[in-house]
Write a structure and sequence with these properties.
The complex is a heterodimer of chains A (170) and B (762). By secondary structure, chain A is α+β, with helices and mostly antiparallel strands. Chain A is globular. With 762 residues, chain B is α+β, with helices and mostly antiparallel strands. Chain B has 3 domains: 190 residues, Alpha-Beta Complex (Aldehyde Oxidoreductase, domain 3), CATH 3.90.1170; 305 residues, Aldehyde oxidase/xanthine dehydrogenase, molybdopterin binding domain (Aldehyde Oxidoreductase, domain 4, 2-Layer Sandwich); 140 residues, Aldehyde Oxidoreductase, domain 4 (2-Layer Sandwich), CATH 3.30.365.10. Chain B is built from 18 helices and 30 strands. Chain B has a 7-stranded mixed β-sheet. Chain B has a 5-stranded mixed β-sheet with strand order 9-17-16-15-10, sandwiched between helices. The two termini of chain B are 51 Å apart. Classes of the chains: A alpha+beta (170), B alpha+beta (762). The interface between A and B is large, with 55 and 57 residues.
C-alpha cells in the first residue's frame, strides 16, 4: 500500500489498513497537528487533505488513503520553515487563539482556495462551516482566508504544499 | 517593536499554525499507561459495592482504582470539599466517576471499563431546583441538612416605599438553560513520576495552582512534591477548573501507584457527561418605575441550579447578586439569591460567571419598563445608568476610574445608526416573509475576583547575561494570548523588542501561587505583576548604571533598547547595561507582585465595595425572523467595550468576536439536554455550538480609558464580551416579532401575522 504523505512516498504493509488514520498519523508518524476532539466527524479538528479534498479522519482508516496524496498541517510550510501565505495570514489577522482548530481550519481553507481563489466572505464562511471553533467567532479566520486568497489568484506563483517545494518567501 | 504592537503578535502563533504546538495529548512518554473513567447508569443512589474483579482480569489491565485506593483526601473543592475524585458513599449525578481502569492501551482500558459493576440502591432523584427546596425533598448531601448550597442578599433602602413611589410595577419571570463550554480540546491529564519522587503533571487545565492543591491532597503529599507544568490549552472558558483538576489528580494517583507515566484523555461524551456547566437560572423580577422613567425599586429572587456538588456556586451567584440590577442606579433593592444542590450535572464557572443569566433578565426588564413609561429603551437606560461618581446597589461609589457607560452606549448607537434602524423594525408585521429587528443591551462588570477571595499575582523577569529576557507570570495561557500580552507589556515597559523576550514555560514550582486564570483577571492581574517586576528591574538597572551615565538613579530612563541618562549622548545599550550588572555582581532579576486594591463585603446586607474596578460594555444585534419557520438570521452584531488599555489589538478584537459568538449560541442554539438526569446531548453533533454560517459579520469598537489602579492600564474583556449579546438578540427579536422571549435558548415557531398579547411598539 503506497501513500504519499506531505510529498513523500511511504510504503505501508497491508496489515496497517484497518488502523485508524488519525492514530497512524498522530502516534506512528508523530504528526500531531490533526487533533482528535469528537471521534465522530462532527468538529473538523482532525481535518487533513486527501487528494486536495478535506477529510475528517477520526472516522477514517489507513486503507482509505491507499494510493492517495495526503497533506497534513505539517506539510504546509516550506521545508526551510517559511510559512505558507495562508498560514502567515492566520497569524497576521489574529485568527488563532487556542489553536486547537487551527490546523484543520488552515487545511480546509487551503483546499477551498485552490478551487475558488476569488471568494466572497459568505463563500468562505460556507467553506469552513464544517469546522468548529469556540474561541474566535470565525471573524478573523474569514479575514485571514480573504487576505490569503490573493496568493491563490496567481496559480503559477503560488506554492502547492505537498506536491512541490515552496519557493523562498519574497 | 512597533510592528509587533501594530500587527497581531503571538509568541505561540508560529507553533500553532504549523501544527508543531504540543497540546497535552500530543506529548509522548515512554512506557505510558492509559486510564479511563468508569461511570454508572445511576443518577442518585447509595453505593453498596463496586465490583472490579472482572475488569482487573481483563487483557492489558494493570489496576482498577476506586475511592479506597486514594491515600489522601478523596473529597476536594475550592469552597466546600464535596467533589469526589471517585464516588464513595453515593452517586449524586450521572457523571460521577466510580472507578478508573488503568491499562497498557486506551482501547483495552475502555473495553475493561465496561466490566466494572456497580451495585447501589436507587434514591429519588432531585431534578427540579424549586422542588429541591421543599421539606419533603430527598437530600443530595444529607450532612448539610438541606439542599441549599448558599444564599446571598442585597438589602438597600426600603423596597416597600420604593414600590409606593412607582407609577408602574412590572413583574416578570425568566429562565436560562444549562450550557456546555465546548472547549475544542477535551480534558487530558498526564501524571509522570519523576526519579526524585515529585509527580509532574501535564494537562489541559486553566488552574495549575488549584490542580496542584487537588493532586497534593489526593496523594497526601506536600505542594512541593507536585509540579504542574503549563501546557498549551485547547480552550477553557472557565470550564477547565475543578473537573480538569480532578482528572489530573486521577492521572497523578495512577502514576504514583504504578510508577509509570499515566495519561487520562477524555472522550467528548465523557467530557460533556462529567464536566460542570453554566448554571441554569430561574429569576423572578419586580421593578417599580415612575412616569418620568426612573427606577424606584427592584425586588428579585434568583434560583441557581448548582447540580450535584458545590463547585463555585457561591461565587457565581454572588456576582449575580452584586450585579442584579445591571448598570443602573436603584435606591431600593431587595434581592434574594439561592444556590441549590440537585442531582443534575454540576454547575460551576463559565465565561460570564453569573452575569449572562442576570443580564438576560435586566436588559429585557429595562425595555419592558421603557415601553410602559412610553420612552425608548435607550432613553430609559440613559436616565437610570451609572455615571461618574454614582453609587452602585451595594453602596460602592464609582470614582476610582472613568465610568464609561455612556461612552460605550453612544459608540454602539452611532456605529449601528440605531435610532434609524429601530424605526424600521417590523413589530410583527411585514410584507415579506422576513421580520426585521434590532436590539441592544449593556452592562457593567466588576473586574477580577472582587470580594470572592484573595487577589494577587506575581511575575518574574530574569535577564540573562547577553541581555535576553526570561519572563514568567502566574497567569495561564488558556488560548487567549496571555503569554503574548505579558510579553508585550514587558516589552513596552522595558523598551526592548519582543524578540528579546522569551516567555518561560510556566510551572507551579517556579512562580508564586497567583490564583487561577479566570474572572477576566489575566491581563489586569498578570499585566500588573509584569509591570511591577519591570519597574523593579529598571530600578536595579538604574542603580547599576547611574555612575557610568553620570546621573542619579531616578534620572535614568529607558528608550528603544537603550538605558539613558538625562544628558545628551548619555546612553548605553540595554544589553551593555545588563553586562555591566553581571560584571559588578548584581543580578538583573526581579519578582513583581500586583496586589488587588482592597474590597469589602457584608454578607448580611449585601453592601460593600464589591470590586476594585469596573468595566463597561454595550452590544447590539440586527436580525431577521422568518414568519413561516421562526428561523432567526443574525444580520450584524456590534460591540463596544472599555478595555482600559488594549495590549494586543487583534487579540482584543478576537476576545470581542469569540465572546459574541458564544453569546449568540447561548441565545439561539445551545442547551445541555437531559432526560431523567442523564445528559442526551453528549457530542458536538447534538450539542450545537455556532458555526461560521450561523454568525453575522461582527464589529469591535475598542474603547480605552486606562485604569489608574491597574499598573499596565489594562482592565478586563474576556467575560464582558460574552454577557450581553443574548439580551440584545432577545430585544431585537421583540422588535421584529412583538414577542418577548423570557426563556433561553430562544426557539421560535411560526409567527402569526398579528402580534398576540403585547403592544410591541415603543
Amino acid at each position: 500500500m503506497r501513500v504519499n504523505l506531505n510529498g513523500r512516498d511511504l510504503e505501508l504493509p497491508e496489515s496497517m489498513g484497518e488502523r485508524r488514520l488519525i492514530l497512524f498519523l498522530r502516534e506512528d508518524m508523530d504528526l500531531t497537528g490533526a487533533k482528535n476532539a469528537c471521534d465522530i466527524g462532527a468538529c473538523g479538528a482532525c481535518t487533513i487533505l486527501i487528494d486536495d479534498e478535506p477529510a475528517k479522519i477520526c472516522i477514517k482508516r489507513v486503507k482509505d488513503v491507499a494510493g492517495k496524496r495526503v497533506l497534513t498541517i505539517e506539510g504546509m510550510a516550506a521545508p526551510d520553515g517559511t510559512l505558507h501565505p495562508l498560514q502567515q495570514a492566520f497569524l497576521d489577522r489574529g485568527a488563532i487563539q487556542c489553536g486547537f482548530c487551527t490546523p484543520g481550519m488552515v487545511l480546509v481553507a487551503h483546499a477551498f482556495l485552490l478551487k475558488n481563489p476569488n471568494p466572497t466572505r459568505l463563500q468562505i464562511r460556507k467553506a469552513i462551516n464544517g469546522n468548529l471553533c469556540r474561541c474566535t467567532g470565525y471573524q478573523q479566520i474569514v479575514d485571514a482566508i480573504e487576505q490569503a486568497s490573493t496568493h491563490y489568484r496567481r496559480p503559477a506563483d503560488y506554492p502547492h504544499p505537498g506536491i512541490q517545494p515552496l519557493a523562498k518567501a519574497p | 517593536m512597533k510592528d509587533a504592537l501594530d500587527k497581531c503578535w503571538r509568541n505561540d502563533g508560529p507553533a500553532k499554525v504549523t501544527g508543531r504546538s504540543k497540546f497535552s495529548d500530543d506529548l509522548k512518554f515512554v512506557r505510558l499507561l492509559h486510564a479511563v473513567p468508569v461511570y454508572s447508569d445511576f443518577v442518585h443512589a447509595r453505593i453498596i459495592r463496586i465490583e472490579t474483579a472482572d475488569a482487573e482480569k481483563a487483557e492489558g489491565v494493570l489496576r482498577v482504582l476506586t475511592a479506597r485506593d486514594v491515600p489522601g483526601a478523596n473529597r476536594f473543592g475550592q469552597i466546600i470539599s464535596d467533589y469526589r475524585i471517585f464516588a464513595d458513599d453515593k452517586i449524586r449525578y450521572n457523571g460521577d466517576v466510580v472507578a478508573m481502569v488503568v491499562a497498557e492501551t486506551r482501547d483495552l482500558a475502555i473495553r475493561a471499563a465496561a466490566l466494572v459493576r456497580v451495585e447501589a440502591s436507587v434514591l429519588p432523584a432531585v431534578l427540579d431546583p424549586e422542588g429541591a427546596l421543599l421539606p419533603e425533598s430527598a437530600l443530595v448531601h444529607e450532612d448539610r441538612g438541606s439542599n441549599i448550597v448558599n444564599t446571598h442578599a442585597v438589602r438597600r433602602g426600603d423596597v416597600a416605599k420604593g414600590f409606593e413611589q412607582a407609577d408602574f410595577i412590572i413583574e416578570e419571570r425568566f429562565s436560562t438553560q444549562s450550557v456546555e463550554h465546548a472547549y475544542m480540546e477535551p480534558e487530558v491529564a498526564i501524571g509522570v513520576p519523576r526519579p526524585d519522587g515529585v509527580i509532574e503533571i501535564y494537562g489541559s487545565m486553566q488552574h495549575p495552582f488549584s490542580t496542584r492543591r487537588f493532586v497534593a491532597a489526593c496523594l497526601a503529599c506536600s505542594l512541593a512534591e507536585v509540579e504542574v507544568v503549563g501546557t498549551p490549552l485547547g480552550g477553557g472558558f472557565g470550564g477547565k477548573d475543578d473537573t480538569a483538576a480532578i482528572v489530573c489528580a486521577r492521572a497523578a494517583l495512577a502514576a504514583k501507584l504504578l510508577g509509570r507515566p499515566v495519561k487520562m484523555m477524555y472522550r467528548r461524551d465523557w467530557s460533556i457527561r462529567e464536566s460542570y456547566k453554566r448554571h441554569p437560572y430561574r429569576v423572578t423580577y419586580k421593578m417599580g418605575v415612575t412616569k418620568g422613567g426612573l427606577i424606584t425599586a427592584v425586588q428579585c429572587r434568583i434560583l441557581a441550579d448548582g447540580g450535584a456538588y458545590c463547585s463555585v456556586t457561591p461565587w457565581v451567584t454572588w456576582r449575580s447578586t452584586v450585579q442584579c440590577c445591571g448598570p443602573y442606579r436603584v435606591e431600593n433593592v431587595h434581592c434574594d439569591t439561592i444556590g441549590v444542590f440537585t442531582n443534575n450535572i454540576v454547575a460551576g464557572a463559565m465565561r460570564g460567571f453569573g452575569s449572562p443569566q442576570m443580564n438576560f433578565v435586566v436588559e429585557q426588564m429595562v425595555e419592558i419598563a421603557a415601553e410602559r413609561v412610553g420612552i425608548s429603551g435607550v432613553e430609559f437606560r440613559n436616565r437610570n445608568r451609572v455615571r461618574q461618581g454614582s453609587v452602585t446597589i451595594t453602596g460602592q461609589r464609582l470614582d476610582t476610574h472613568k465610568v464609561s457607560m455612556g461612552e460605550v452606549l453612544d459608540a454602539v448607537l452611532k456605529e449601528t445608526d440605531y435610532e434609524a434602524k429601530l424605526a424600521k423594525c417590523s413589530h410583527g408585521t411585514s410584507s415579506s416573509d422576513e421580520l426585521y429587528g434590532i436590539g441592544l443591551a449593556m452592562s457593567y462588570r466588576g473586574v477580577s475576583l472582587g470580594a470572592e477571595g484573595v487577589d494577587q499575582c506575581a511575575a518574574i523577569i530574569n535577564v540573562q547575561p547577553d541581555g535576553s529576557v526570561l519572563l514568567e507570570a502566574g497567569v495561564h495561557e488558556n488560548g487567549q494570548g496571555a503569554e503574548s500580552a505579558m510579553t508585550l507589556i514587558a516589552s513596552r515597559e522595558l523598551a526592548i523588542g519582543v524578540d528579546r523576550i522569551r516567555y518561560r514555560r510556566s510551572s507551579t514550582s517556579s512562580v508564586p501561587d497567583s490564583g487561577t486564570t479566570v474572572a477576566s483577571r489575566g491581563t489586569i492581574m498578570g499585566g500588573g505583576a509584569v509591570t511591577m517586576a519591570a519597574r523593579e528591574l529598571k530600578r536595579k538597572i538604574a542603580e547599576a548604571v547611574c555612575t557610568e551615565l553620570k546621573c542619579l538613579p531616578e534620572d535614568v530612563s529607558f528608550d528603544r533598547g537603550n538605558v539613558c541618562g538625562p544628558g545628551p549622548g548619555a546612553a548605553m545599550k540595554f544589553d551593555d547595561a545588563i553586562a555591566l550588572m553581571f560584571r559588578t555582581q548584581r543580578y538583573p532579576y526581579a519578582c513583581g507582585v500586583f496586589k488587588a486594591p482592597p474590597v469589602s463585603w457584608d454578607e448580611k446586607t449585601g453592601q460593600g465595595d464589591a470590586y476594585f474596578t469596573w468595566v463597561y460594555g454595550c452590544q447590539a444585534a440586527e436580525l431577521s425572523v422568518n414568519k413561516k419557520t421562526g428561523k432567526v438570521t443574525l444580520l450584524s452584531a456590534v460591540a463596544a467595550h472599555d478595555v482600559g488599555r488594549a495590549v494586543n489589538r487583534e487579540m482584543v478584537r478576537g476576545q470581542f468576536f469569540g465572546g459574541m459568538a458564544m453569546a449568540a449560541g447561548y441565545a439561539l442554539h445551545e442547551e445541555v439536554k437531559s432526560k431523567d438526569g442523564r445528559i442526551t446531548t453528549l457530542n458536538l453533533n447534538t450539542y450545537r455550538i455556532p458555526r461560521a454560517m450561523d454568525l453575522p459579520e461582527m464589529t469591535a469598537l475598542i474603547v480605552e480609558n486606562p485604569d489608574p489602579q491597574s499598573p499596565s492600564g489594562a482592565k478586563a474583556l474576556g467575560e464582558p464580551t460574552n454577557e450581553i449579546l443574548a439580551p440584545a438578540i432577545a430585544n431585537a427579536i421583540y422588535h421584529a416579532t412583538g414577542r418577548r422571549e423570557r426563556s433561553l435558548p430562544i426557539r421560535l415557531s411560526a409567527i402569526p401575522e398579528e402580534p398576540q398579547e403585547e403592544d410591541c411598539r415603543l
